[in-house]
Amino acid sequence: MVAGRKAFALQAGDALSPDKPAEAQPAQVKTDLAANRQDAVFRYAQNGVQVTKTITLHPRNFKVDVRTEVRNGPAQVNMLFPGLGKADNPRVQAVPVGGQPASVQGSGTLSVQNIQYAALQENPSQIAHALIVRPQQGTKVDVQLTGGPQGLVTATLPATSSLEVYGGKNELIHLYQSGYTELPGLFQPNFFGQISLLIVKLMEALYKVIGNWGLVIMALTILLRLVMWPLMQAQGRTTARMQLVQPLQKEIQEKYKGKTDPESQRAMQMEMAQLMRDYQVNPAGCFSTLLPFPVLIALWATIRNFEFDSGFLWLPDLATPDPFYILAVIYLFVNLGQLYVSTRKTPEMFRQQAMIYLVFLYFALTFPSGVTLYIILSTIIGIVQQIIINKQVEHETASLGQTVQKVAPGTRPASKTTVTKTIDAPKK
After folding, report:
1. Beta strands 49-57; 160-169: pairing state
2. Which residues pair with 146 in a beta bridge?
């Protein structure tokens, strides 16, 4: 937990010292599959003092329970929690019961009585770590916080004590799964962190019903797409109408081909603008394509840090990339299918953009498999939505005689300023 450090070392004057020899017994390890826990019992004697430490490991998080019993020794002992391995100048903090956080970073010492918790923390990031100590079962703990390059928490405990110790990432999802996000002053999530918390709570609620993390991600994907369905309509309708007007835009460009004088260029721009108005193409509708990205970023941060207790199908861990690259292949074909649906009337655009998805294939190879699963299913739902919208838009224009196929070659719905009007554009 703390590489190269004597964590959980006891100290009490000459009676107990981590630097003096002790008579130690072989550790006893007991696994309780029903309770999903593992206990390791360590016993040793030093200067006539007998010490028993029981350390309980819990799956899916980075915390252990440390129960200590000291016999024939002093009424109080010190337990040392020295630094965070190679971390430099961590923040050393403690919060007394009913009080406010007190911290030291850099030089200096600080004493805090009757703590709710004490912590050594690096600045939050994906590679930052934290060590958090919480008294359990009514144990009263006083601490001395020592700042400096490594930092030190010295906890004063009764001879019989119980602590919960977290040693892992100083990151929101890990802390949440270990039950520490509610501790005052420990961690303040940002905007994406708040979204991540909502996602992980929804995932846990779905898991209680479904009981499979892969199916939970799929159900979450469907729910999110249903919520975003109305918002994605504007983008879908813009895409469908753009497919209808692109051939007409090319006709206008051909009409003014080779004409570089300002008047011709201005006339071409006016015809282009009128064409967009006639077919009710709203470029602002494309902004809705940005809506899924905050959710995707938050979901990516959630899944890659989430501790899953089981895999899904051939995937051993939904928080890691697919080791067999099957999802990456599916991802590529699904995205090409989405591109085809969006550019089916302009094959040259499909060919131009198809190569871009080979670049995106890299992300499918490196993303957590749970995130790739979300993207694949979300894209499939998006394809279905776009097909429905395409049919709706074609039906709307066809009912008014406005499909591109019904526009004679070399003609288009004329603008309101054109003297000879061919076919009115659809009006709503």
Report:
1. unpaired
2. 109, 152
C-alpha distances out from residue 265 to 201, 221, 271, 281, Å: 56, 47, 10, 21
Q: Which of 234, 271, 305, 217 is nearest to 412 (CA)?
A: 271
DSSP type of residue 132: E
Q: How confident is the model at residue 404 (pLDDT cuts 50, 70, 90)?
A: very low
Residue 262 has pLDDT above 50, yes or no: yes
| Gap between the Cα atoms of 297 and 198, Å rounded | 13
Q: How many residues does the chain have?
A: 428
- CA 417 vs CA 270, 299, 414, 428: distances in Å: 10, 50, 8, 19
In angstroms, rounded to a whole number, what is the distance separating the alpha carbons of residues 141 and 164?
A: 12
Q: What are phi and psi of 143, to 5 degrees?
A: -130, 155
Tokens of 127: 């590679």
Please report the domains of the chain, with CATH numbers, ordered by start residue: 9-188 (2.70.98.60), 208-406 (no CATH)
Residues 6+ apart with CB under 8 A from 188: none
Tokens of 352: 């131009």
CA distances from 173 to 87, 122, 371 (A): 21, 16, 15
Q: Are 82 and 7 in contact (CB under 8 A)?
A: yes
Q: Phi/psi of residue 133, each to 5°?
A: -120, 125
| Average pLDDT for 173-191 | 86
What single string gives the DSSP state of each residue in 219-253?
A: HHHHHHHHHHHHHHHHHHHHHHHHHHHHHHHHHHH
- Both structure tokens of 131: 């060590």
Tell me the C-alpha distance between 53 and 40, whole Å: 8
